[in-house]
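This section describes the prediction task in plain terms. A model, or a person checking by hand, is given the sequence of a single protein chain and must write out its three-dimensional structure as a string of tokens. No templates, partner chains or ligands are provided. The sample shown here is typical of the held-out split.
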Amino acid sequence: MKLKFLIVKQDLRVSGTSQGICSRSFLSKLRDVYPDSIIDVVYLKEAPTEDQLHLLPVDNIESHVLDLRIPFITKCVNSIYWRLFHKSLNEQYIHKIYAAHLSNIDYARYDHIFIMSSGLNHETILGSKDLPILKKAIVSFHDPYPLYWYSGTNRALSNLDLFRLRQMNDVVSQAKTCISTAALMSDDLQFLYGSKKKFHTLPHQFCEKVFDLSNNSQVVKKNKKVTISYHGAIQFGRNADCLLDAYKELVNENEYYRENTEFILRLRGQDNKRLIAKYAETQNIVVLDTLNFSNSSNEQIHETDIGVILENGPLVCNILVGKAPFLAAYNKPILCISPPKSELRNIVKEEKFIATATDKEEIKQKLAYLIRDRFSSDAPMYPFGDYFSDDNFKKSLNLILSEIGDK
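The expected answer:
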């Protein structure tokens, strides 16, 4: 019997968003596991974008651009309303728009339905609240919600956050089951929402075949024997300074490192100018603007010898960064800069691939080891073992579907 899948997505973009990259890869891996199944997608997006949907191995994509402009009168009333009642009319208006599209889906003809979040506001999930489709749906979290519970945020807890928590608690209790992309997050969210149902874990994936990586016009060629690189954002407690301080000491202390290594950072965020100024005298550290996904991928695949992952911090990171499965796909050494408790600490197979974000000496030792290794070898490395393998994805997905099959 052919299984019929419905996937509700909020982000299938090809660049500028790790969630879009992971979402596209999920569809590809789902097709690999169930090659004869029917896979339909309802794509609810906030703005017109060129998403190269023809590359996705699905049977049908129904794409909708949602008009999320909030009426002026609603904004005016909400400016007082949320302070008095600790509820947001603006958010409720947006959730109703998502709900209107979700309520039109003929969900009964599908064996499995995934409603998958994107961004920090989880509109697709919250829009399903109290709808019949939700009782048959697997709700997928890629980040904690509300934002107050997101590791690395400085947001203060508000009464509005408590209302958001209650709203999501209702969704969780109504859903057929819930999953997240990280084991730590699954445990945390199950506890946070007081769920009597198990939160399952289905990690992020990466699959190159759902992307057109032919554009390499902006790739910067490596200038040294060993190139270390970080492509991404500096946010939510991620610490680049301690890492760069450690590398700076290495090149200052060792002429061979200074002559034969470089550290390239492609940053998204507010730290470019600050880091450029701070490390202006260290020519081995180069801070550049971000690239589109095709150019960034080519630079990391073909011009990078050691990849870097910055996890959220400073104390805990309970999410799985989307960068991990991407870098894992190319079997290169990776240095994870992580807080004391993190998702990657439970995944990384050897200590040489991970260092505490605030421990400069540990970072320095681990970085020196990986640099020395690359001086003498370009043999493939597998920092995450088989965690992101096709077989592990298939095993995790089938376990989830089998456990909810009788519900």
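For orientation: The longest strand covers residues 38-45.
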